[in-house]
């Protein structure tokens, strides 16, 4: 009765961003600028968590079955 | 010292009491089937799944060992952060397919899936054995976490450790997956509390974050080791990236991760969790920095056991009662994953060895009781590992575990997306990946711990004749070997017209959701 289900969605491509970015050390392997005394290597990688949460949340909300 | 032990013991006992009560929680008609006992009735919603999977993946050992890595080597130890950022988007579309096909076909383990998909009991057996072998040392390592805490509190002897594990074994036997799910709430609240206090309070006592990082850099500058420092150098960047990616791919191949995911109520619960679980990564990142705080505070490990630096740091920095809370958080933090891991390993044994090879006509009740006994055996084995063998051996084994569990990726993860591979090719690939991975690990020396073999996971590329000082994650290379052999093996098997195994699944099985009539087991859930 219902149309066949599929997981395909253009939104899924967004998932590549938080996979690729944290795996490029050239982006974050530096001491300066520091944030609250924390070297960039650490604070920027912590910030990637926000990137990951944001993209997966967008993909989830755009592809969930409940709506 | 006494206050610490009292607070630790009280919290530990309260939580253990919860473990026993859990059998009554969200109760279904009977616990006497594997789905009920081993998967908690598969009825867990977003919150419980978040606590369960989070408590399962971010283990006590992680909380002790990751800061110890930063304490010892610096930036390379921080790989745990990109690893846990990358893993969720990576498996986002994979785990929902596994959930669907498992619920349509009543599958409980990754090996069950391989059996259904490729029609090969041999390949399923290999996947099951890989899972059990990779999980066992992981359970043993949870004890290393408890042991580090006990050592710091000055508790001597093996008895407390044995008691802690006996309690764990008893309530897992009684309550199955419900016990860790309920306890995970407490464990995580405690850990969040401790870490938030630690990252605000400790830096303020040590002169701020800037001073902490400068102290760490000064320590690494003073050592002769070339690879340490608070930043990566040109030789260990490839290792950092491949270890993060390889670990991210391995994480959801572990049977205990699969168990946590399959216990979810529907696909949306999994998707929502993939976006909410990184909250734990924030915690992990902050915990990692405790290693540098320990350097700045001048902490020395007890003996050669570098895992004691975090408990030592808490002991020195916190008032006694709060140090007791912190130790309880680590101790309880060890119980949740240990319980889930032993359940997952027991399920593998029951489904893929006992029912496949020993009693094909086993009833649900027989399966559940075999699983319960197997989970006890697994835990006793883990305790014996720690007591009888040098704990360093467990750490080495866990390292090997990550490399070998990756070798199930072509069968399990790629199998979820297609059936291009021939079962013969997959078996050949597994053998090649496993062999090359072990040979590489065997040839990695670690001068710091005086290990000639199994000294780490960073394989020097110069051993392959390349003119470079760069290193790469051994598991990553082994997986590449595995895939190449699996592809060649598949071509060969097709060329000589070797029989394909029957595929019990259909494409629509991989996208079925809870409202689909083919998705069963859910009426058993009975959360009313």
From TrEMBL, chain B:
Entry membrane topology: Multi-pass membrane protein
Transmembrane intervals: 47-71, 78-99, 119-141, 153-173, 179-202, 277-299, 321-349, 370-389, 395-417, 424-445, 470-493
Recorded superkingdom: Bacteria
Major site of localization recorded for this protein: membrane
Presence of keyword Transport: yes
Protein keywords: Membrane, Transmembrane, Transmembrane helix, Transport
InterPro entries membership: Na/Glc_symporter_sf (IPR038377), Na/solute_symporter (IPR001734), Sodium:Solute_Symporter (IPR050277)
Subcellular location: Membrane
The family this protein is said to belong to: Belongs to the sodium:solute symporter (SSF) (TC 2.A.21) family.
NCBIfam families registered for this protein in UniProt: monocarbox_MctP
The protein's name: Monocarboxylate uptake permease MctP
Source organism per UniProt: Microtetraspora fusca
